[in-house]
């Protein structure tokens, strides 16, 4: 870095999730079973570029604040948004 440049602010994953939800880029699924459902949903989500990221909430057998986020980046829209650029 040169002179008075500040280091880039690192983005918290919770902020990223909120930003992507606001942009319609998160599919939230509640109560999916870890053994029988999450893997299949992720497989389908990742088969085609541009599908939303998938956030699994309230996974049975885990504390409510333990979530699974998948299919984060295979999207032309999410790349620029993550970098702070226009979609």
Features:
3 helices; three-stranded mixed beta sheet; single chain; globular
Ordered list of secondary-structure elements with their pairings:
Layout: H1 13-22, E1 26-30, H2 34-45, E2 53-57, E3 68-70, H3 78-82
Parallel strand pairs: 1-2
Antiparallel strand pairs: 2-3
Which structural class best describes the helix and strand composition?
alpha+beta
Number of helices: 3
Q: How widely separated are the two ends?
A: 27 Å
Low-pLDDT runs of 5+ residues are none
Question: Could you characterize the architecture of this molecule?
Answer:
The protein is of the alpha+beta class and 87 residues long. 31% of the residues lie in helices and 15% in strands. Strand 1 (26-30), helix 2 (34-45) and strand 2 form a beta-alpha-beta unit. The model has no long low-confidence stretch (mean pLDDT 86).
Task: Give me a quick take on this structure.
The protein contains 3 helices and 3 strands. The chain has helices spanning 13-22, 34-45, 78-82, and strands at residues 26-30, 53-57, 68-70.
């Amino acid at each position: 870095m040169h002179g008075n440049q500040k280091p880039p602010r690192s983005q918290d994953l919770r902020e990223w999730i909120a930003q992507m939800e606001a942009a319609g880029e998160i599919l939230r699924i509640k109560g999916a079973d870890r053994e029988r459902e999450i893997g299949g949903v992720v497989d389908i989500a990742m088969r085609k570029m541009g599908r939303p990221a998938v956030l699994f909430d309230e996974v049975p057998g885990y504390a409510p604040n333990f979530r699974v986020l998948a299919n984060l980046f295979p999207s032309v829209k999410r790349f620029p948004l993550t970098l702070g650029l226009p979609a």
